Amino acid sequence: MTCLMWFRDDLRLHDNQALSCAAQAAALDDAPLVAVFLDEPAYPGTRPLGGATMWWRERSLYALAHDLAEHSVELIRAAGDARETIPCLALELGATTVTWTRRYHGPLREVYAAVKETLTARGITATSSPGFTLVEPWEVNNDQGQPYKVFTPFSKAAASQVAGDEPEEVPEGVPEMGASASIACSWPKPPEPAWAASLAAHWTPGEAGARERMAQLDLANYAEERDIPALNATSLLSPHLRFGEVSPREVWFAAAEEPEAAKFHSELLWRDFAWHRLYHLPNLATQNVREKFNRFAWSWDDPRLKDWQAGTTGIPLVDAGMRELWATGYMHNRVRMVVGSFLTKNLGIHWRLGEEWFWDTLVDADAASNPFNWQWVAGCGDDAAPFFRIFNPETQAKRFDPEDEYVRRWAPALSAPPIVDLQQSRQAALDAYAEIKD
To answer: Could you give the residue ranges of the DSSP H alpha helices within 291-404?
Structure first.
């Protein structure tokens, strides 16, 4: 007899409500706690992880397996459709309880509802827990009972509902290190692909890396400096949040002790907003939220896409951002807006091609934030930047990188001429928008 904790995008021990639930059940039944990670197929309506997120996840799992082993908990790795594999594994292990952290994408919700139904029918307690977002998507609605489509009222409503309880430590029922002999961890160290060597120089995937990053959180000048890419004044917690190596609730409470907490909390709420919108719009990665943009003349086969991807557009700030992305799996948020605007408005290339490139190259790409932010910058999403707000990369560079420090770091030598005239392409974008705005 065992209790089974199913890890997914919650690769941590601290403040993990699903793990707490499994540990409590194990203590009640006087049964061992076993953990599992399942390599699942891309279900209809979903897609496989990109290269950068897969690189991160494998290293995060390696760290989690060793952390659990120090607590005498084994992490099993299995593969298959969750609807079949998890119930079969639970029976094989003699599990009386299976717990997991919820997901909010429609196609996945259907899969896990089927898992719960099968487990329950077999007499196994199945429990899903919150923890990936600050507030559950169905808990934040306007006065008409409808989900918010505009961020400001959403953020006020959601902030008022953030749980007031302090984040949990490693839950009771998970043996303390040293309390019993740790188990030998046979989890293999993931191979290091040649293309990812520079990623390892910039990141430490896993809960320990996340907690170290959170401990360094300094928001003293966050509001003034977060838009300056050369300063690295952002938290750099987004990939750790992506894989649940730290909970958004714990980050929220850690930030609350800092000056400028309100602005940083707003960024956490923006992440929640994206997930709440995905909950209601499961096709966010493939369909324009604003349907009038279905008529917009974006290009799907512009050869300049390769210049954008390679950082060879001849536009210094754009090229610096794209090269930072390739080298680190990350891009400063201000620069993300600039390169997204440049692709969709100056080059007229469909936002989905940019979103797909980010999906493959960003270590923090997730199913909600990535398409949500691309639709925002393209002007076709919820509460989106108006289409006529076209970021001028030269103006942005003068304002946020006036000494060219960021550009010199990532794109020190630009010899190619610009692939597009910024003013002419801006006007062309406005003319194209005029044809569909009514």
So the answer is: 304-310, 316-328, 333-341, 351-361, 369-378, 393-400
Q: Write the pLDDT tens digit of every residue in 73-114.
A: 999 999 999 999 999 999 999 999 999 999 999 999 999 999
How far, in Å, CA of 24 to CA of 28, rounded?
Answer: 6
Beta bridge partners of 38: 78
Burial of 235 (0-12, 13-18, 19+ CB in 10 A): buried
What CA–CA distance (Å, rounded) separates 229 from 397? Answer: 10
Nearest to 425 by CA among 313, 268, 263, 270: 313
What 3-state DSSP class applies to 153?
helix
* pTM, rounded to two decimals: 0.96
Structure-token pair, residue 308: 């954008």
DSSP 123: T
- Indicate the pairing of strand 2-7 with strand 74-79: unpaired
CB 240 within 8 A of CB 210: yes
pLDDT tens digits along 331-370: 999 999 999 999 999 999 999 999 999 999 999 999 999 9
Beta strands 33-39 and 74-79 are parallel
CB 337 within 8 A of CB 227: no
Question: Could you give the strand order of the β-sheet that contains 74-79, starting from the edge strand earlier in sequence?
Answer: 74-79, 33-39, 2-7, 95-101, 125-129
Cα–Cα distance between 120 and 117 in angstroms, integer? Answer: 5
Question: Which residue in 34, 9, 173, 186 sits closest to 101, CA to CA?
Answer: 9
Cα–Cα distance measured from residue 60 to residue 82, given in angstroms and rounded to the nearest whole number: 21
Contacts of 204 (CB under 8 A, 6+ apart): 212
Domains of the chain are 2-132 (3.40.50.620), 133-166+210-280 (1.25.40.80), 291-434 (1.10.579.10)
The one-letter code for the residue type at 72 is S
What's the CA gap between 353 and 181, in Å, rounded? 51
